[in-house]
Amino acid sequence: MTVQEPEPPLFPAGYGPLPSDMDSWIQQPFQFLTTKVMFRAELQASQALTANANTLIHFGSTAGDILEDPYGGWSTTATSAQPAWSWLCPAGCTGLYEVTMTAFTANPSGGATAAVIFLDGTEYGYLAYNWGGDGQASGACGGGPFYLTGGIDYIQGYIGTVAAVNTTATAGQYPTLEIAWVST
Questions:
Q1: Per-residue pLDDT for 1 more than 60?
Q2: Total number of domains constituting the chain
Q3: Contact present, 148 and 89 (Cβ < 8 Å)
Q4: Which of 4, 50, 125, 139 has the most other CB atoms within 10 Å of its CB?
Q5: Residue 103 or residue 16, greater confidence
Q6: Contacts with 134 (C-beta within 8 Å, 6 or more apart), sequence order
């Protein structure tokens, strides 16, 4: 992110700093650094997953799914800059990001579950792949570094399964996606 370089304070003779001065000298110039988490969501409603495929997860399809998005990068509808169900890296925020995802499914009948990230509409990689016990819910989670260009790159979360199942709608087992800024 491009941050305006702070101006050195000028102290007239006999001047004592006020609390508002500390805000303008320190907090406001470094506001981006105090809000590191860029995006955090969980899918609280059940979503059908296709067998032997990666299914785009519809974070934000119900109220309360988007837990944190201070820069407004998530969109549930397609725009000129990004497709539906994606997070666009904010303009001026180019840098290294940590992307983590958890993928939980209801009873997969012994099938596998994968947390998959797509970068700019292309499968970037499987973050995790896990086999569930027969008749038991299955989950996989993982994370990795991504270098994102502000205003251009977007992230989408997918869940891959070998059986046609649904995501869980149980608190504590929601599929989640988190994108956090690490450095420029």
A1: no
A2: 1
A3: yes
A4: 139
A5: 103
A6: 109, 110
